[in-house]
């Protein structure tokens, strides 16, 4: 589940271990009984006073922070770690009480769990009450229960999963969602097209449906046209993208669209395809594919066979081959 993957991620960050957390290396800074002037749990302490009062057997905040930032330190995070991970480690040094227990859920506005084998989006996500961005790409998610998603969510990225049905996601979708990433999944129409309308996503600005199995261009456009705030759309990799008039029809059908398949839509292109959406008869659901065979190995080459002698009555041996392509 997402919650299990998150807990494992926190364990790897070592937020309770030296130089983070509370221990023998900094316990006096967070002992309210011995230092009442520092405020509740030591979180309102004066850094200058604390620096002066650091016992000899403890480490100062500056020294602990240096252990996190020095690339030669054994406690430094790898260079490819996210800024959020670095921020959490710093908080665990300066104000460890803010990342202890359930408090840690209030810190996150963005959560990235990529390639961790996650199969379930569980209700534990509801603890992230401030979460605005959820990235769950490259996992094994097939269904998403919208009731388990934080209500403040604005970005939901589910690329490279196994999502084939949007019904559960659209039961109670986050009302403020602005980006929905569903590229490289198993969606196909027309059963799923009905879930891509403003009835479910009134504030959607960006939608990625690339590399699924949508084939009905007219049906999909009729749903997408209700998304009045949609500005970015990615549909490349779907069978419908092979239709000759695909791009022109979309550009003219969705006049508020700014970017289609990562290509900006300019005034000249809009003028070029003007009124194309009124001519659906031009849409032909077919595509021509040309395949060139460069080389075939493992079969006899007829040109190298010895020629028959003139007048010979020996049987003639012929060869024929069939090459099959499966789409």
Give an overview of the whole structure.
The protein is an alpha/beta fold and about 325 residues long. Among the domains are: about 1-20 and about 80-105, no CATH class; about 110-285, Leucine-rich repeat, LRR (right-handed beta-alpha superhelix) (Alpha-Beta Horseshoe), CATH 3.80.10.10. About 20% of the residues lie in helices and about 5% in strands. It has seven helices and eight strands, in the order ααααβββββαβαββα. It has helices at about 1-15, 45-55, 60-70, 85-95, 215-225, 245-255, 265-270, and strands at about 110, 135, 155, 180, 205-210, 230-235, 260, 265. The chain has an eight-stranded mixed β-sheet, with helices on one face. InterPro entries: Leu-rich_rpt, LRR_dom_sf. This is LRC43 protein. One of its GO terms (cellular component) is cytoplasm. Keywords: Leucine-rich repeat, Repeat.
Topology of this protein?
Layout: H1 2-13, H2 47-53, H3 61-69, H4 83-94, E1 110-112, E2 133-135, E3 155-157, E4 179-181, E5 206-208, H5 217-224, E6 232-234, H6 246-253, E7 259-260, E8 263-264, H7 267-272
GO cellular component, one term: cytoplasm
InterPro entries: Leu-rich_rpt, LRR_dom_sf
Keywords: Leucine-rich repeat, Repeat
Going across the biggest sheet, name each strand in turn: 1-2-3-4-5-6-7-8
Strand content bin: 5-15%
- Estimated structural class: alpha/beta
Tell me the series of helices and strands, N- to C-terminal.
HHHHEEEEEHEHEEH
Tertiary shape:
extended
Low-confidence stretches: 33-50
Residues in helices, as a percent range:
10-25%
Mean pLDDT: 85
What gyration radius follows from the Cα positions, in whole Å? 30 Å
Protein name: LRC43 protein
Organism: Podargus strigoides (Tawny frogmouth)
InterPro entries: Leu-rich_rpt, LRR_dom_sf
Keywords: Leucine-rich repeat, Repeat
């Amino acid at each position: 589940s997402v919650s299990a993957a998150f807990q494992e991620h926190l364990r790897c960050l070592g937020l309770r271990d030296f130089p983070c957390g509370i221990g023998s290396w900094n316990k006096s800074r967070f002992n309210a009984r011995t230092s009442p002037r520092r405020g509740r749990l030591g979180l309102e302490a004066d850094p200058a006073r604390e620096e002066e009062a650091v016992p000899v057997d403890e480490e100062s905040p500056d020294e602990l922070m240096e252990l996190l930032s020095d690339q030669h330190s054994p406690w430094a995070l790898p260079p490819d770690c996210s800024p959020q991970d670095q921020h959490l480690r710093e908080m665990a040094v300066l104000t460890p009480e803010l990342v202890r227990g359930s408090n840690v859920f209030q810190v996150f506005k963005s959560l990235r769990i990529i390639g961790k084998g996650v199969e379930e989006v569980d209700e534990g996500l509801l603890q992230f009450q401030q979460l605005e961005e959820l990235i769950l790409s490259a996992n094994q998610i097939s269904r998403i229960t919208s009731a388990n998603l934080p209500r403040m969510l604005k970005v939901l990225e589910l690329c490279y999963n196994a999502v084939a049905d949007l019904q559960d996601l659209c039961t109670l979708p986050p009302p403020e969602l602005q980006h929905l990433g569903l590229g490289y999944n198993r969606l196909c129409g027309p059963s799923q097209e009905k879930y891509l309308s403003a009835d479910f996503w009134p504030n959607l600005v960006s939608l990625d449906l690339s590399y699924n199995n949508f084939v009905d261009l007219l049906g999909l456009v009729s749903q997408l046209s209700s998304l009045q705030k949609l500005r970015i759309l990615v549909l490349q990799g779907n069978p419908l993208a092979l239709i000759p008039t695909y791009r022109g029809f979309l550009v003219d059908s969705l006049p508020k669209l700014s970017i289609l398949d990562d290509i900006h839509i300019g005034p000249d292109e809009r003028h070029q395809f003007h009124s194309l959406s009124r001519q659906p008869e031009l849409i032909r659901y077919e595509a021509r594919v040309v395949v060139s065979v460069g080389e075939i190995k493992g079969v006899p080459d007829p040109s190298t066979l010895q020629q028959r002698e003139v007048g010979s009555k020996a049987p003639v041996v012929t060869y024929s081959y069939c090459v099959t392509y499966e789409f």
